[in-house]
Amino acid sequence: MKIIVISIFVENQEKALAFYSETLGFVKKHDEPAGEHRWLTLVSQDEQDGTELLLEPNEHPAAKNYQQRLFDEGIPVTMFGVDDIQKEYNRLVEKGVRFTMEPTKMGNVTIAVFDDTCGNLIQIIEQ
């Protein structure tokens, strides 16, 4: 068994697609109609056959509540790995990304947290 898709709830799929592709650098893999929304997934540039990130509409009340509660509590919804966290932090800050936690050493790893502009906090980690 392996993980093939992870999903995060987003307030607006088009806005999320722009942020995750143009700002973060993920590559769109699937963009198919799914009722009034889309099956919209992205992958890492370096692992285009790897795990897909599904940008899922948060229209269900439970999804909205879950997303808002995590955001209000400062809890990231997922984590992305980076090779050089300071370099990635600087790159994203230059693109206007707002961080809620600057790169911080925690034992053997360094983490940082940013706002994805779509209702989520995202953690990046250098191991």
Could you characterize the architecture of this molecule?
It comes from Oceanobacillus kapialis. The chain has 127 residues and is of the alpha/beta class. It has helices at residues 13-23, 61-73, 85-94; strands at 5-10, 27-34, 37-43, 52-57, 78-81, 99-106, 109-115, 121-126. It contains three helices and eight strands. It has a four-stranded mixed beta sheet with strand order 1-4-3-2. The two termini are 24 Å apart. The model has no long low-confidence stretch (mean pLDDT 97).
List keywords for this structure.
127 residues, alpha/beta, 2,3-Dihydroxybiphenyl 1,2-Dioxygenase, domain 1, four-stranded mixed sheet, 8 strands
CATH class assignment: Alpha Beta
Rounded mean pLDDT is: 97
Q: Sketch the topology as an H/E string, one letter per element.
A: EHEEEHEHEEE
Assigned CATH superfamily:
2,3-Dihydroxybiphenyl 1,2-Dioxygenase, domain 1
Helical region count? 3
Shape verdict: globular
What is the CA-based Rg, rounded? 15 Å
**Strand order of the main beta sheet, please?**
1-4-3-2
Q: Which strand-content bin applies to the residues?
A: 35-45%
CATH topology: 2,3-Dihydroxybiphenyl 1,2-Dioxygenase, domain 1
The termini sit apart by 24 Å
Tell me about the largest β-sheet. 4 strands, mixed
User: Count of DSSP E strands?
Assistant: 8
Please give the CATH architecture.
Roll
* Count of all domains: 1
Poorly predicted runs: none
Could you say which structural class the secondary elements and strand pairing correspond to? alpha/beta
InterPro entries: Glyas_Bleomycin-R_OHBP_Dase, Glyas_Fos-R_dOase_dom, VOC_core
Organism: Oceanobacillus kapialis
Protein name: VOC family protein
Domain VOC: 1-127
